[in-house]
Amino acid sequence: MNLQALELQKSLARAVSDAMQESWERIVVNYEMLTTDEGREVDYCAFYISAAGGDFQETSLRTLPDAVDDLFIQLNDLMAKTENERWGTCDLVIDRSGQYKFNFDYAAPRRVNGIFDEQSQGRFDRYLETYKTDRGRT
C-alpha cells in the first residue's frame, strides 16, 4: 500500500475518533461502497463501545460526518487507482489507545446488494458479547 493511502487511513481514523463527543473504548465502522457508471451507493454499520459504570455498552452511530464519507470515497478511489481494484467493504476498528486497523474486502458489498447475512450484519449483532468475552467480562 502506498504512502498516500496510509496517510488517508490515518486521517480517516482521526476524523472518526475526533467526531465522537461521548467517551468510548472502541469504534467500529463497516463501510460498503458500490461504484458503477451510474454513480456510487454506500451503506455503513457504525457503533462504539463505552465502559459506563464498569460495564460495556454498545451505541449505534446513526450518521457519520460528511468529512468521513468524503475520506472513505477518497480512499476507495485512490486504492482503485493504485491497486487497480476497488474494495467493496472496508472495516475500520479504532481503540481508545489510538491504534486502528483497516480490513478491505474486494468482493461485491453485501448490504448494498440487499444481502443481510452473517458476513454483512450478523457479526456486528454479536460484537459486544465478543468484546466482553475477549476482556474477561460476561
What does this protein structure show overall?
By secondary structure, the protein is α+β, with helices and mostly antiparallel strands. Helix 1 (3-19) runs antiparallel to helix 2. It is globular. Helices cover 37% and strands 32% of the residues. The chain has a five-stranded antiparallel β-sheet with strand order 3-2-1-4-5, covered by helices on one side. Strand 1 (26-36) and strand 2 form a beta hairpin. It is built from four helices and five strands. It has one domain: BH3703-like domains (Murine Class I Major Histocompatibility Complex, H2-DB, Chain A, domain 1), CATH 3.30.500. The longest helix has 18 residues, at 66-83. The protein has helices at residues 3-19, 66-83, 118-125, 127-134; strands at 26-36, 39-52, 55-60, 89-95, 100-105.
What order do the helices and strands come in, and which of them pair?
Layout: H1 3-19, E1 26-36, E2 39-52, E3 55-60, H2 66-83, E4 89-95, E5 100-105, H3 118-125, H4 127-134
Antiparallel strand pairs: 1-2, 1-4, 2-3, 4-5
Compose a concise summary of this entry.
With 138 residues, this protein is of the alpha+beta class.
Strand fraction: 25-35%
Number of domains: 1
Number of strands: 5
**Low-pLDDT ranges:** none
Query: What's the CATH architecture?
Result: 2-Layer Sandwich
**Residue share in helix:** 25-40%
What's the arrangement of strands in the largest beta sheet? 3-2-1-4-5
Helices, by number, come to 4
Mean pLDDT: 94
How far from one another are the termini? 38 Å
For this structure, what is the CATH class?
Alpha Beta
Helix vs. strand class: alpha+beta
